[in-house]
Amino acid sequence: MPTFAELGHPSVVSATWVGLFAPAGTAQAVVDKVAQGMGRALHEPAVIDALSKQGAEAQFMGAAAFGRYADSEITRWGSVVRAAGIKLD
Q1: pLDDT in tens, 5-15
Q2: What is the reported pTM?
């Protein structure tokens, strides 16, 4: 399968990411506690090894940074989704 660059679109860069979300209004103390636990877990050798075997690499951002990243991805890909007419089933 050709890459985007090989198809004439060298500026298209895409990555798969996974994150945890909480409902709006979740207490900051709860968000912080979950984030701290996730941060610890993602530094555990067994977790790093398991993710690596799946071709993944953990990059813990913390709640605020992840929120900004998720917002930027929505902005980045929103126009692509709209232009392609992609709808939820």
Answers
A1: 999 999 888 88
A2: 0.75
From residue 29, how far is each of 14, 68, 75 by CA, in Å?
33, 19, 28
At 84, the amino acid letter reads A
Token pair of 17 as six digits: 């990411």
DSSP string, 55-67: T-------HHHHH
Cβ–Cβ < 8 Å for 79, 72:
no
Q: Scan for tokens 């991805």, then name that residue.
A: 73
Output the CA torsion sign for 61, 56, 38, 68: positive
Range 2-31 burial, b when 16+ CB lie within 10 A, else e: eeeeeeeeeeeeeeeeeeeeeeeeeeeeeb
